[in-house]
Amino acid sequence: MEKEQFYYDNKIVKMFLWATILWGVVGMLVGLLVALLFVFPGLLEFAGADNAISWLSFGRLRPLHTNAVIFAFVGNGIFLGVYYSTQRLLKARMFNDVLSRIHFWGWQAIIVAAAITLPLGLTSSKEYAELEWPIDIAVVLIWVVFGINLIGTILKRRQRHIYVAIWFYIATLVTIAVLYIFNNLEMPVSAFKSYSVYSGVQDALVQWWYGHNAVAFFLTTPILGLMYYFVPKVANRPVYSYRLSIIHFWTLIFLYIWAGPHHLLYTALPEWAQNLGTVFSVMLIFPSWGGMINGLLTLRGAWDKVRENPVLKFFVVAITGYGMATFEGPMLSFKNLNAIGHYTDWIVGHVHIGALAWNGFMIAGIVYWLAEKLWKTPLYSRKLANTHFWLGTLGILFYAIPLYVAGFTQAFMWKQFNPDGTLVYGNFLETVTQVIPMYAMRAIGGTLYLTGFILLAINVIKTAKAGSTVEDELAEAAPLKKISGQRVAGEGFHTWLERKTVLFTILTTVAILIGGLVEIVPLILVKSNIPTIESVKPYTPLELEGRDIYIREGCNNCHSQMIRPFRSEVERYGEYSKAGEYVYDFPFLWGSRRTGPDVHRVGGKYNDNWHFNHMMDPRSTSPGSIMPRYSWLLKNDMNASNLESKMKGLVTLGVPYTAEDISGAKQALLAQAKEIEGNLRQDPEFVKNYGSSNIQNKEIVALIAYLQRLGTDIKANTTALK
């Protein structure tokens, strides 16, 4: 059959390559700044302690770092690899050049929007899903553009059977669409403010169904697809086992979607949901290690190349990091290990093994290899690439190992009792100051890793300058001849399925939907899963404003609101948390780590002046604290202009505010604020420092009201369940 000539679109690949490098440097730099704030809390207080800059506080920079690394760096790295490999695997140019450009510039615009809004405190607070509703809509639209371009390319392909890498791209496309839409269903109440349509326990399950599977289907399945393409290409070896790749794919996508509840063990989530998460998480080790084995054994007969080729060095460490992270994840889903690890820095170390080794090194190897292919010239300096490899590897070790040590230190200190039954370390700060040397080592590791990546940027820039500027690459392939939909002689079932791409996509969608439906639908529809508590009432208008300020400042990045039923936690914090306490929490704020103590029972524990002083200067009430100052809360007036629309939106979501509550909201807010100001003025020091200043309309008052409400709806050992 006569072959057709066509051109691969290399320009779009180069665009994503430069974006990957740019956002990699930015995301890692912000991460290093965040790491340094643990060691030097006042590092970014350029304007002085009394004039701290709100958008440089830890609570706002931390989500900026995670979003920059996940969606900007890794996201662009994924699209880089997908756009390059898809064209060559399918023997076709991308479906539409205009869609390719819309996808690229739309994705960059979303990243810039995130980089602006997150430091401004415009956040939904849900981990890895902090972007507010207008940006969420943009993400979905651009994802649809990407989907049309990918599926269109598959349908016009000149290669009959779709290769394993394409399977993983399809799974990524459909699953991220499902996860992102359902987790980000929100009730907008203003241009950049919304409330999750789920509350409390339901919101927690949906969020970690998304959160865990954002790791699974954004940070894992597309990278596995890239592994299946680039590792054989660079090593010049076939994939070790086609049969193993089939088992790996289908078992992974079916099992992964169930595992989210293992982030919520020992919480107020119903026991049945926790147990489902544990069972499927443990099973995940088998397909995950199947993928690792398939990747590493692809290098059989080519290990001599690893010594010489820096790209293969990056791939080997990346796949090994994947194996380590996917062994650790199932182990952490065992309740006895989860009781030690959850809320500690062990989890942060675990996550960064995946991010730095698996994602970071895989993308670095791809960038180096593509630099030679795209600019048709040898890499500027292999020595520089090898230096990057060793700096990055040392950086990973210096980052992760101290955090493992910190995690175990925290867990054992939190749980240690004296013979008389009191906590050995009753002051939470004792556990914070103990691990600061580990935080310093983590910052050193981050510096090494960032330095290595900057070397990559220099190396690629030099390579591009020395190479060709040709944007399109001539290729040829025979057009695809139509054959019967029936299986032909000698064709296995899966081989047949690989040419039935619509059916393949449908089966993939069914596989990922089963787990989500089984876990989430009963929790939302069966009321007995979340017993209500009669004494739990909606937040007052001032408390609602304070909660939104708490969310804006990212306080839940460091403070949990979930006391687990452990002797040590009940002794330290108070009565363990009940599912019914969170029914009016839109969104939930259980947190995922404790840099500071849990605050679910903080209401009434300290007086208003303590909270005021703690926010203005944490070291004044808590010597050794690494919490930032929030001096702007005393300067900023409360903006209650959207108060009524917020309450009306919450009524739509099921919060029982009456018409009288809403019409009298501003008066109620002022009355409670005036009462708090009166409490503050009982302290002579407050009067001395702030004189006759009117602070009842300041944001600090609203935040104090919210903190004083936390955990006060029930008494210890409440029986007020109905």
TrEMBL record:
Heme b 1; low-spin binds at H65, H352. The keyword Cell cycle does not apply. One of its GO terms (biological process) is respiratory electron transport chain. The chain crosses the membrane at residues 21-44, 64-84, 104-122, 134-155, 162-182, 208-230, 242-259, 279-299, 311-327, 347-370, 390-414, 434-458, 502-525. GO terms for molecular function: cytochrome-c oxidase activity; heme binding; metal ion binding. Belongs to the heme-copper respiratory oxidase family. This is cytochrome-c oxidase. It comes from Lutibacter maritimus. The lineage of its organism: Bacteria, Pseudomonadati, Bacteroidota, Flavobacteriia, Flavobacteriales.
